[in-house]
TrEMBL record:
This is Uncharacterized protein. Pfam families: Glyco_tranf_2_4. GO terms for biological process: cellulose biosynthetic process; response to abscisic acid.
Length: 354
């Protein structure tokens, strides 16, 4: 097949709340990669994010508003009508609407692809051969039969508790092992059906990865007051993915927060490339992310993140800092994980910010 030489343009969209510590660098990195446009939707933002972002060249800013309060030139799709009653109470629903709106605007402006990610994530274009490549060339390499590209996340590995500039300082990431992940997923699902306990499910994951990687990637988080222990098997954050959609086909699909799903037809998806996820790089981020929320919302999803939430809510910051050290890998363990290809050193983001 002859190589596709057409220029491929891409845009990025964010729905953010209080991300002034990361959003400017996140935008700068993607613009340096060649993003044609960045759409930023503020969702109840109370920090300085607006002032930082507004007025930047190539960036369009919006407040998150229900469709009834917007003057739209196109009809809101029927799939959104089914969920819009949850608009006020569910951020995922607001993000779905914002991303649909960004896709409409990007398509009207003639762009080819739209990438929806979070402010603590950086697009990492890696080709079929496993080598880094320019973002434009990455999208150009995608066969026209594919509607979306699924980008697995690579989670930041924290090796100390004083990281202040994660996009520049954070260079170690957990590799992905799809077969192991599928086995663990089915095992955890079976345990969940039997015991219906997030704690038991989390310990199941812990022991699976303890055996799989001989203890190298596993950690335990102890609550400083109660002494309760939460296990960390492999992923501290989420193990899923984000996606980029071909804009010429976007109206046929439903945006489902992480990927686009069937509406009038099922999207044809290609798994290629990654997003670098700088999740919880320091105690300050833990306090920001978990210290302002109710504990119960994390219990069903992750017992470990529930424990982090509890520590952030119940402890002074110096206690939180000490607890955070339990999430960090020491130099010896980190070197062993690099040697066994569990962890990779990736300097991609620093290259674009410098």
């Amino acid at each position: 097949m002859p190589e596709n030489t057409d220029l491929c343009t891409f845009c990025v969209t964010y729905t953010i709340r209080n991300e002034e510590d990361t959003i400017l660098d996140a935008i700068a990195a993607h613009m340096a990669m060649g993003a044609s446009k960045v759409f930023v939707f503020f969702d109840g933002t109370t920090d300085g994010s607006r002032e930082i972002v507004q007025g930047l060249e190539g960036v369009e800013c919006f407040e998150t508003l229900p469709p009834d309060e917007l003057s739209l030139d196109v009809a809101v799709p029927e799939w959104f009508e089914r969920i819009k009653s949850h608009f006020d109470t569910n951020m995922d629903v607001r993000k779905q609407f914002n991303t649909w709106l960004a896709a409409v605007k990007a398509r009207e402006q003639g762009f080819d692809w739209l990438l929806c990610i979070d402010a603590d994530e950086i697009f990492y274009p890696v080709g079929q051969d496993g080598k880094e490549m320019p973002a434009e060339a990455f999208f150009r390499s995608v066969d026209r039969k594919y509607d979306q590209v699924i980008l697995r996340n690579l989670e930041l590995v924290v090796d100390r508790n004083d990281v202040r500039d994660p996009f520049r300082e954070g260079v170690y990431f957990l590799n992905r092992f799809p077969v192991s992940e599928e086995i663990c997923r089915y095992l955890a699902a079976a345990v969940t059906r039997i015991f219906r306990s997030p704690k038991i499910t989390e310990w199941t994951r812990y022991w699976f990865y303890m055996i799989r990687f001989r203890g190298l990637a596993s950690r335990r988080l102890r609550h400083p007051a109660s002494g309760r222990v939460a296990p960390i098997g492999y992923f501290l954050g989420y193990r899923s993915y984000k996606s980029a959609i071909r804009l010429s086909e976007a109206e046929q699909f439903i945006f489902g927060v992480h990927k686009w799903q069937e509406y009038t037809r099922k999207p044809v998806s290609l798994y290629r490339g990654y997003v670098l996820h700088y999740d919880l790089p320091n105690p300050d981020k833990v306090k920001q992310k978990f210290g302002q929320r109710e504990k119960s919302i994390y219990l069903e999803k992750s017992y470990t993140r529930y424990m982090l939430n509890t520590i952030a809510l119940e402890s002074d910051f110096d206690v939180l800092e000490e607890s955070f050290k339990q999430l960090c890998f020491d130099e010896k363990k980190l070197n062993s994980m690099i040697e066994k290809n569990i962890v990779s050193k990736i300097n991609w983001t620093e290259k674009y910010l410098n």
